[in-house]
Amino acid sequence: MNARRTMLVASAAALMSTPIWALPSQASPGHGKGHPPSTTPVGPPHPSPSDADEHGHGQAKGRSNGAAHPGSSHKCLPHGVAFIVAGRLVHQMLVKNSDGTYTGTVTLKVTHTNRHAAGEKQGAPEKTYSLTSVRVTFGLRDVNGDGTVGLDDVKEGDRAKLIGKVTKLARKCNSGTFTPQTTIRKVLFNAPS
C-alpha cells in the first residue's frame, strides 16, 4: 500500500513539473503534420506604388475610385431606430381592416417621447399621425357596455402611445438629401390616470 501511494505521488509530481512546451499542442491543428513553420516570405515582393493599379492593389476595398472617405460605407445607409410618442388623445379616425389591423389618423397632444422622437415636442403641441395597418391595443374598460372593448370605447383625453421606427443616418454621414421616414406599427390606448 505504501509503495502504491509513493508511486502515485511521484507520478503526480512528474506530471506537474513537465514544461508546457514539451506537451503536444491542441490549439494549432496545422502544426505537427510534418511541415515546419515557414520563415520565408511567400510570393514576389509587394508591388511599388507605380504598378499598384496594374495588379489591382492600392485601391480602397469596395470602391472603384480609391476614395478614402467612408461616406459610402454600409454605416451610412439609413437604418431604423425606435420611435415612441405618447400623450393625450385629441382625435382619432381609425377604421378596422379585414385582417384586424387599423388604418387612419390619430391626433395627440404630445407629452412624452424617446430621444429619437424628441423633435415631436417642438412646435404645435398637437400632432397628427397617419397610420396604415397598425396593431391597436385597448387598455380600457368597456365604456358603452356592448361586451367588447374597441374604438367605440376610446374617447378624447385617453392616454395614447404610438410605437414605430424612424430611419436615421450615422452622425458622420452626409445627410444632404436624406429625409427620415417614420413608420408607426402599434398604438396603445389607456384610460386617463
Describe this structure in words.
This protein is mainly β and 193 residues long. The protein is 8% helix and 33% strand. The chain has one helix at 2-16, and strands at 79-96, 102-113, 126-139, 159-168, 182-190. The chain has a 5-stranded mixed β-barrel. Strand 1 (79-96) and strand 2 form a beta hairpin. The protein starts with a helix and ends with a strand. The relative contact order is 0.16. The model has no long low-confidence stretch (mean pLDDT 80).
Question: What is shown here, in short?
Answer:
This protein is mainly beta. It has one helix at 2-16; strands at residues 79-96, 102-113, 126-139, 159-168, 182-190.
Helix tally equals: 1
Terminal Cα separation, in Å? 81 Å
Query: What is the number of E strands?
Result: 5
Uncertain segments: none
Topology:
Layout: H1 2-16, E1 79-96, E2 102-113, E3 126-139, E4 159-168, E5 182-190
Parallel strand pairs: 3-5
Antiparallel strand pairs: 1-2, 1-4, 2-3, 4-5
